[in-house]
Amino acid sequence: MEHPATLESPASDPAAHATALVGHHYVTEDHYVVGREKIREYAKAVQDYHPAHHDEKDEFALESGGLLAPLTFVSPMGMHAQRKLLERIAVGCDLSQLIQTDQVLRFHRPIVAGDRLTCDVSLDSFHQVRGRDMLVLENRVSNQRDELVHTAYSTLLLGPRGETAETVAATARGLVAHDMSNIVPDRTQSILPATSVRTSARSRNPLVTIDPPLPRGRRFREVSVGEELPRRTIRLNRGDLVNYAGVSGDGNPIHWSDEFATLIGLDTVVAHGILTMGLGAGYITSWLRDPSAVQEYSVRFASPVYVEALLGATITFAGTVKSLDPDTGTAVIAMNATSNGRRIFGHRAAVKVLLAQD
């Protein structure tokens, strides 16, 4: 069964409309081809210099048949698919002021240069909290062999549309690049037939789950509960934000326009949330010595990273081994990230990793 959820026929009750679409999903019309140079560009943008992302002769790249993508590589592609679904679900809401609160990433197998990826995004749940709509979206990413490679759960908050929201959206439309109008769609204009999308009901294509490669980095016997990872401090400047916006396709003006950031109540421009997650992922995999041994990575975005025009910003990452499981050979790392004395991730930021066995 297919359910047409279009902007041309908004529901009279937006909450009921969204509730009725729980379980429905949107599949990207075309696959995404993972390019070797795109992997290198993205790895540089998130300051992840593990050779598996840059050198095809690296042992991990050779074993996998190509450069490995960094852990957050597919997040921009997933965000685009989420926007498509939200345009059909979030009737009466303002997407230009969407707030992402939680992100959970699960990694089933490495993404390799040459893979052809497809996103399948579904509305997992819908609630109303303090006058805002709270949605949880599930995004399953599969490759050309119908293997599940990546699953993401994103918790989003949306506010109702109003006169202020329309002013903000109109300002944003005047700033974003001409082909990025999906950030703030102009609802006064009709949607072209070429962009119409149908969301399908609960049936989903079956995917294959295969075992990940055996970890070959840090060994289980090398790690102990309570062990602290070496701290790492990373500097971000405005150029880094502009570069990430170009590489990822996320041109939201809160990341480069002081005027727009001030308009929506921010002190100044802020770093992309997924950029900060990407920096944290590189911090963990550098300690692991294995870019493909992370099983799950979850954060709650607690505070934005303000990036001053001249001073930029610094983020300090730290981690502690919270638990070890000898039966599965896994460890859970509690990660802390701070900028300007404030936690940017909540207290429950955690990474589950596979450790090599003797």
Structural account:
- The strands form 2 sheets. Strands 2, 3, 4, 5, 6, 7, 9, 10, 11, 12, 13 and 14 form a 12-stranded antiparallel β-sheet that branches. A two-stranded antiparallel ribbon has the order 1-8.
- The protein has a single domain (2-189, 211-354), classed as Hotdog Thioesterase (Thiol Ester Dehydrase, Chain A, Roll).
- The chain has helices spanning 14-20, 36-45, 59-64, 75-89, 163-173, 238-248, 258-263, 273-288; strands at 2-3, 25-27, 32-33, 99-107, 116-129, 132-142, 148-158, 199-200, 228-236, 294-300, 313-325, 330-339, 342-343, 350-354.
- It is an alpha+beta fold and 358 residues long.
- Helices cover 23% and strands 28% of the residues.
- It contains 8 helices and 14 strands.
- The model is unreliable at 1-11 and 178-199 (pLDDT under 50).
- It comes from Nocardia jiangxiensis.
- This is Fused (3R)-hydroxyacyl-ACP dehydratase subunits HadA/HadB.
